[in-house]
Write a structure and sequence with these properties.
Length: 352
């Protein structure tokens, strides 16, 4: 495989925030607790994406740094990745549900990508998410973002809770909250099948049949999805955990559940203008090229840049060595700090 060196700007990327511009929003004491990748070339130059990780099972703390590197290196976006951090040690600990430092970066963000589960954040952190959403900022929600919050400690933001009467952030913003596993979790993987009405969209460029696959199972959703939602990818439940396994027969695939959809709210509604939600998105799911391409295409769409998606889809080569942990409760890597996610000077994208 031919290996390409990074541009000088990207090669120097480390951890921390610049002292000016949108990054100045983050308090100095939190700047060592986030990862920042600054793009040098591409359509995304000058656009800032904040990626919010924090789930106990699907390793979003590994997936989102890799996605941020892809978006920075191949497309020019500046990406700030946030983590659940144990304040006592400064280490990434997804089991700490009450602390995601750096959310002030949302105050000047162009896009939020969120992959959290049952977070119970303090008001001073949640206010940045609340303000961003009410200003109409676009959102991409991955996997457990349908049940992103369980605000047990905060009456101020209790409406974001996954099982609130409104369905919380998941139902109100993304289009669905947690319902149930539809596939057999850990035994039946998911093949993405473009919804019939989606195949001609710019969002679908480069997504060849069978190229979108996830080791995670299909989540159940209630049909039809709420107003403004349009199914994009349907989830075909497979009989096993390999990309070429056969679909199961019977009601699990009749009808197939949406596993990715778009949503648009009217401008000035106090909700995000554009939303892309997918119940795929574990760290191991990003090993599949088509699944990565769906997510990067979605970045362009949510930012209103879909006319810049190439005919064969966006570039999604992995950056550096990506060996994600299997999804499992308690399966996170111990002793890792945000600084460990710096893009090393000798890193290079992996070529197909």
């Amino acid at each position: 495989m031919e290996r390409q060196r990074l541009s000088p700007v990207l090669a120097s990327i480390g951890i921390g925030l610049l002292a000016s511009g949108s990054f100045a929003q983050v308090p100095p004491e939190e700047r060592s607790q986030v990862a920042v990748y600054t793009g040098a070339e591409g359509p995304g130059v000058g656009r800032h994406i904040v990626l919010v990780s924090g789930d106990e099972e699907y390793r979003s703390e590994e997936a989102l740094p890799e996605l941020g590197k892809i978006l920075a290196l191949h497309h020019g976006f500046t990406c700030t990745v946030l983590f659940a951090v144990d304040p006592a040690t400064g280490e990434i600990n997804p089991d700490v549900r009450t602390n995601i430092p750096g959310l002030a970066a949302l105050d000047e963000a162009d896009l939020m990508i969120i992959s959290t589960r049952f977070r119970d954040l303090p008001d001073e952190q949640m206010e940045h998410i609340d303000r961003y959403l009410k200003a109409g900022g676009p959102v991409i929600g991955l996997r457990t973002a349908t049940h992103a919050f369980a605000m047990d400690s905060s009456p101020t933001y209790a409406s974001y809770t996954w099982n609130s009467p409104s369905g919380g952030f998941g139902r109100e913003i993304l289009g669905e909250t947690w319902v149930a596993h539809h596939g057999d979790h850990g035994h039946q993987s998911t093949r993405g099948v473009l919804a019939p009405e989606a195949s001609a969209l710019p969002l679908a460029r480069g997504l060849a049949p069978g190229s979108v696959w996830a080791k995670t199972d299909v989540y159940a959703v209630r049909l039809p999805l709420p107003e403004g939602c349009r199914p994009f990818m349907l989830g075909q439940v497979l009989a096993g955990m390999a990309i070429d396994d056969e679909p199961v027969a019977g009601e699990k695939n009749d009808p197939m559940m949406p596993v990715a959809w778009t949503r648009e709210f009217p401008e000035g509604s106090g909700k995000p203008r554009r939303v892309f939600a997918t119940t795929m998105g574990a760290a191991v799911d990003l090993e599949t090229e088509g699944t990565r391409r769906m997510l990067v295409n979605a970045v362009y769409w949510t930012l209103g840049m879909e006319d810049q998606i190439p005919p064969d889809g966006t570039a999604v080569d992995l950056v550096g060595e990506y060996q994600p942990s299997p999804f499992a409760f308690g399966g996170y890597k111990k002793g890792v700090k945000p600084t460990d996610h710096a893009l090393r000077q000798d890193a290079a994208p992996l070529q197909k």
